[in-house]
Amino acid sequence: MLPPSVDYETRYEKESEPWRYSERAAELLRHEYIAAKIRTLQPRSRILDVGCSIGQLTRKLKTVASVVVGMDVSHTALVKARTNCQSEHMLGPTRYLFAVGQASALPFRAAMFDVVISADVLLEGGFSEELKGQAIEEYARVLRPGGRAIFTDYMRSTGFDGYIALVKQSRLKIVSIEYLSDRLWYQFESLFHLFQNSFWVKALLRNLFLAQIFQRISRTLGRKYSKHICIVAEKPVENNPPIIRTSFPERDSRCP
Fold first, then answer.
1. How does DSSP assign 187-249, residue by residue?
2. How many other β-carbons are positioned within 10 Å of the β-carbon of residue 213?
């Protein structure tokens, strides 16, 4: 079995968008949900998007923050992400930077970010339990005191309590827990797996209105009809926090 970093690089080299997040209504709604959640936070001027893929969520943050850093294990994914975010960069005030790195060993100094996004990273990344814990501690390290981490991950509802416990074991304090009520949609989507390249099926599976109807139905059935959990957690403010000088480079040199 290939190491996750090699597997992801290979996927992005062979396919334009391996998981088709921009073609699937539930994923589009999830990204919109995260972006909307971030808009409610203050401050949010510096955001780190861990596991940013080709920038499907990253590009939605163009008016949300002054600096957005997209990070992924795949250099090829980041090249695509920068291209996808380029038009947003030209049209808005947001500055985009990109860096290759691992969630469990972030290549950033402490207290650099107001918000860290971990969207489908901890479970999808093939991490061991130890590495999951290390990744969350890394999120806490690079957050400023009072900063927020936003977690989403795809799993069976029976895994929700264990995921919550994993975050609780860290030094982050959970602020809110929500369930995205998307299980019915994924079940519906699976019916068309063999025909996913058809024009009409693509159009159907991108239909946000239909996905929202499934979401409303799932919401009435409780959390067991969710596949995604969303946790917002805060880094506690210390009584005597250290003074840390941070700065961003004048140009993005991590992803040529």
1. HHHHTTGGGTTSHHHHHHHT-HHHHHHHHHHHHHT-GGG-SEEEEEEEPPPPSSPPP------
2. 13
| Beta strand 113-119 pairing with 67-72 | unpaired
End-to-end Cα spacing for the chain: 29
Note the pLDDT tens digit of each residue in 89-134.
566 789 999 999 999 999 999 999 999 999 999 998 889 999 999 9
The pairing of beta strand 228-234 with beta strand 113-119: unpaired
Pairing of strands 46-50, 67-72: parallel
Residue 48, helix vs strand vs coil: strand
pTM summary value: 0.91
pLDDT tens-place string over residues 54-68: 999 999 999 899 999
Q: Using DSSP bridges, classify how beta strands 113-119 and 143-154 pair: parallel, antiparallel or unpaired.
A: parallel
Over residues 29-37, the mean pLDDT reads 98
Residue 11 three-state SS: helix
Q: Which residues contact 143 (CB under 8 A, 6 or more apart)?
A: 111, 113, 114, 115, 116, 149, 235
Residues 139, 105 contacting (CB under 8 angstroms): no
